[in-house]
Amino acid sequence: MSYANDSGSSNITIQLLREQYGIETLHHDYGPVTITSIALSLDDVTQGSLYIPSKQAISEDPYFMQAQSRGAYAVLVDRQTVVDSAQISIPVLFGSLSAQELGTLAATLYHYPAQAIAIFAIIGQHTERYASQLAYILHILGNPVGLISSTMTKSLDTDLYTHMPLSSVAMQKLLSVIVEDGAAAAVIGVDQQTLQQGALSCIGVDICALIRDEDHIGHAGINEAAAYYGAVIGEKIAIATRTADSDELAELFKPHADPDELAVLSTCLAMVMAAGVRKNNIRSALKVAKEMD
Question: PANTHER family annotated for this entry (predicted)?
Fold first, then answer.
């Protein structure tokens, strides 16, 4: 297992935060200070971090000194927070950043990792079964893949430590690790157990499916989820739903599966076909995987 780290990041200055996000500072000479990561908890603070403590952390801990000792380059608090600047030598910033703004900053720091891989999104409630099944299918088709779900987060064969639900900052860090490990795709379970509101900010979805009890698909539901989680939905997005072909492949792979299992498998196969993989290629890969079981 490994931790998502901050390697491969770019830089953001306090001057940029002032100019583009309305952040205020006590002194103007802080402008050139460079931020190399964003930390939403003390455990995530590393050398160069912008630490953004929660209200609970502000009330309970001497968070300034702890963040400074861990290597933070700046701390961001809301404008109502009273700060004794004499006790801290790093810049104190005043203002607030939305989940979307944090996601945009994190994407900049990590070189927009979502743009480097195919993003598969499974939207619904308790999507972990679908996400795990889809990642497995992509794997047996020869694709190195990352998986982000409430029960399992992996980069290829490596398990990653995460705290659910994920923030927009955590999502960018995870995708950065997945890209650095050489993945061609990432499968994301889009539900409230996995993601916070706005967690998909600055992340474009390439292929998606909306799962419901009736297994129906609808643009309205996808747009609603995209608005809640902040995902970027473009005109070229492929929206998958079960078809006769995907049902046929599912029954071929698991002829004795119950209806629920077949529904999961068929939906995932439909997503793979929506990504452009041919039915015959899928059939061959499933046959080999079945023989190896």
Answer: MUR LIGASE FAMILY MEMBER, UDP-N-ACETYLMURAMOYL-L-ALANYL-D-GLUTAMATE--2,6-DIAMINOPIMELATE LIGASE MURE HOMOLOG, CHLOROPLASTIC
Burial grade of 125 (CB within 10 A; 0-12, 13-18, 19 or more): exposed
Tell which of 68, 97, 126 closes a domain: 97
Using a 10 angstrom Cβ sphere, with 0-12 exposed, 13-18 middle and 19 or more buried, the burial of residue 269 is buried
7-52 per-position pLDDT tens digit: 445 679 999 999 999 999 987 788 899 999 999 999 999 999 999 9
pLDDT reading at 260 higher than 50? yes
DSSP β-ladder status, 37-39 and 49-51? parallel
Q: Is 168 found in the same domain as 49?
A: no
CA torsion sign, 216 to 218 to 220 to 226?
A: positive
Domain that holds residue 121: 113-292
Last residue of a domain, one of 97, 127, 162: 97
Position 5 in a domain: no
Domain count of the fold of the chain: 2
Task: Find, among 64, 60, 84, the residue nearest to 74 by Cα.
Answer: 64
Report CA-CA distances (Å) from 252 to 123, 198, 215, 247: 26, 39, 20, 9
